[in-house]
Write a structure and sequence with these properties.
Order of helices and strands: HEEEEHHEHEHHEHEHEHEHEEEHEHEH
CATH topology: TIM Barrel
CATH class: Alpha Beta
CATH architecture: Alpha-Beta Barrel
Number of strands: 15
Shape: globular
Largest sheet: 8 strands, parallel, barrel
Structural class: alpha/beta
CATH superfamily: Glycosidases
Number of domains: 1
Strand order of the largest sheet: 4-5-6-7-8-9-10-11
Distance between the termini: 19 Å
Strand content: 5-15%
Helix content: 25-40%
Length: 451
């Protein structure tokens, strides 16, 4: 490799580290000593059917970051990431624009299936999940990970919550044992009135902090048109979750029953009526897909982006809505909540399944997971011919390593990007801390040599 190329790669890697990471403090996000509010978009051009990784194509990133900056956002959510692809250039461009990323760690064929969660929670699946975690952990602008999206959407699917919570535990334990920085792990929930509160409570309950989420997202479409704080039910959500101990935010919002969307909910979301409990949200979605939620239309040759009235309205609302001064009345001393009791409408057990034995080598940090990208298909590994992985359980109490870098303790659209469950109702970097230091040293050394 030419020295100039080596220097370019080194400085590129260091640039991705320049943006200070987002951290969890109590029920809020912070960057350093400043409260951080998510102002963002759900971003998956092409939707879930085409399964394209938008961060693997620098031309796509450069095309769209221009519009991200025009909107004034600071966060995007990616529903499907190829854990074999190179994301350095796009993550650097996003970091340069001051933009963080929340990654869903699942793809459609490698996710917890609500109709057979036990079978889909297996060694092959965890290999893919943890490979994605490891792949994206080196970037300071990785804000967090969603362990799953909308797996629970009715009474019958509440049983699957037990397995999603096991994935949360495995991801957090993996991060801890790898001594990776404290990247938040969360769940993105369907806003289903029948079990909305129970879902949030379940993922933040229990004595095992490794099995509790570090953040929680709602996919919320309750504010339609020029609604109000009370009419939309936002006031009730603030009341319901006033004692929730980790950051809450809207992982999707933007009802499209009124077109163009006025996005008047932005003023409420970033007002002191909500910021003591909520930390912003992500508008669904950037590109126009078949479900008609897009802010822009992308031409068939993928070269031209045309913003629509929704884009202009959102831009206007963001521009005239400031964050509250100070810390937004966040709370840093709330305890985790009690687990919801089992019932006909909430069937999830408080005893979560043990990690499959075959995956312990990954979770313990003994062996690197190696992802298969979009070719991964793991949901039926329990009955797949030729699968010799040991998917029997092993006690979760045996997998935590010494030392800790873990964090403290109504939808109406059809999915254009969601990929965490096969039946949605809507829509190799070991030793990363030392590796980051090595990259900085390499950049300085190369720079000194060139000079």
């Amino acid at each position: 490799m030419k020295l100039s190329n080596l220097a370019s790669l080194a400085f590129s890697a260091v640039a991705c580290l320049a943006l200070d990471p987002v951290e969890v403090k109590g029920n809020a996000f912070f960057v350093g000593d400043s409260r951080f509010y998510i102002r963002g978009l759900d971003y998956q051009p092409g939707g879930s059917s085409t399964l394209i990784d938008p961060l693997a194509n620098p031309d796509t990133c450069e095309r769209d970051i221009k519009y991200f900056k025009e909107l004034g956002i600071n966060t995007i959510r990616i529903y499907s990431i190829d854990n074999t692809a190179d994301h350095d250039e796009c993550m650097e461009k996003l970091a340069d624009a001051g933009i963080y990323v929340i990654f869903d760690v699942n793809i459609p064929n490698a996710s917890i299936a609500r109709d057979d969660a036990k079978c889909s929670y297996n060694t092959m699946y965890l290999n893919e999940v943890l490979a994605t975690v490891l792949k994206m952990a080196k970037y300071n602008n990785t804000l967090g990970y969603f362990a799953a999206n909308e797996v629970i959407n009715d009474d019958d699917s509440t049983k699957a919550a037990t397995y999603v919570k096991a994935v949360v535990r495995d991801m957090k334990t993996f991060i801890k044992n790898r001594k990776i920085r404290a990247i938040p792990v969360g769940y993105s929930a369907a806003d289903v009135a029948e079990n909305r509160l129970e879902t949030a409570m379940y993922f933040n309950c229990g004595d095992d902090e490794m099995a509790r989420v570090d953040m929680f997202g709602f996919n919320d479409y309750s504010w339609c048109g020029k609604s109000s704080f009370k009419t939309s039910g936002y006031d009730q959500k603030v009341e319901d979750y006033s004692n929730y101990s980790v950051p809450l935010f809207f992982s999707e919002y933007g009802c499209n029953k009124v077109n163009p969307r006025p996005f008047t909910e932005v003023q409420a979301l970033y007002s002191t009526d909500m910021t003591g409990v909520f930390s912003g949200g992500l508008v669904y979605e950037y590109s126009e897909e078949s479900n008609n939620y897009g802010l822009v239309k992308i031409s068939s040759d993928n070269k031209t982006v045309t913003p629509n009235d929704d884009f202009d309205n959102l831009k206007s609302e963001f521009a005239k809505t400031s964050n509250p001064s100070g810390d937004g009345s966040y709370q840093d001393d709330l305890p985790h909540n009690n687990c919801p009791p089992q019932s006909d409408k909430w069937e999830a057990s408080n005893k979560i399944p043990d990690t499959p034995k075959g995956a312990l080598k990954y979770v313990k940090g003994v062996e690197d997971p190696k992802g298969n990208g979009f070719d991964a298909s793991t949901q039926w590994a329990c009955v797949a011919k030729g699968n010799d992985d040991d998917d029997s359980g092993d006690s979760s109490s045996t997998i935590s390593g010494a030392g800790s870098s873990s964090t403290a303790a109504s939808g109406s659209r059809s999915s254009g990007g969601s990929s965490s469950s096969s039946s949605s109702s809507k829509k190799g970097d070991a030793g990363l801390a030392s590796a980051s230091g090595a990259l900085v040293s390499l950049a300085l050394a190369v720079g000194a040599f060139i000079i």
